[in-house]
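FIELD: query
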Amino acid sequence: MIQSMTGFGKSTAELSNKKISVEIKSLNSKQLDLNTRIPSIYREKEMQIRNTLMQSIERGKVDFLIYIENVDKNISSQINQGAVESYHEQIRVIAGNLNLALPSDPLSIILRLPDTIKTEYSEVDDSEWEALNKAIEDALSQFVNFRMQEGAMLEKLFIRKIENIGSLSKEIEKYEVERLERVRIKMQEALSKIDSGSYDQNRFEQEMIFYIERLDINEEKNRLDNHLKYFMETLNCEKAQGRKLGFIVQEIGREINTMGSKSNHVEMQKLVVQMKDELEQIKEQILNVL
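FIELD: result
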């Protein structure tokens, strides 16, 4: 079963003095682009956390966040005076450069900026690490389940579109004999206006065969059918196959384009346009497959 690269998972660990929340969200990307926001008290475990995430996520633009909500009133928090002064000076300089008035209450604005409040935390003990790891595992589990649910919806879409392309390809067959016969008649009508002694009849037959062979699309239909089957087989692989499916879609598009250029028939061209429309809808979503 395929998975989507779009995912979301969130979990919370309740401790006696704090609540730890873990959140993971992702969008599609060619590679794994992992952005983490981890509080400083957990920095020593950052590499371990990143390795855990990389093993489960594989690919996508991923944001991983850990944030802490203190519930212990005895935890000491202090205003970081140096950071506040630095922010105030920057605001004053920027306002002067832009000829803007200073805010009426700059302190309330500054205190909402990063690193203006310093909170003293106790050392992280084993029970807290265990609770954090459990929260990460739970968030990852939700994240993977989300990806699988999204992938199941994509899979249904792909199957429907691939089946539609296959059906449209079959419909083309009923026009093939008529198309080739129409070409033959048109050429004969053109030649009937010419003195039959002015051209070699055998050479004409050879050229007719060569021209009709150039219009023949049996090879393209066979290759298209094989690509459609291969796409369906790849959908059922357990390993992430997003890139491979993308390559198969490109091959399907080549065969459809060649059939269109060879068709030389209005009804066949209409069917080719419909096939391209179905394929375009696959292309739009295939980029989101893990």
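FIELD: remark
Residues 151-286 form one domain.
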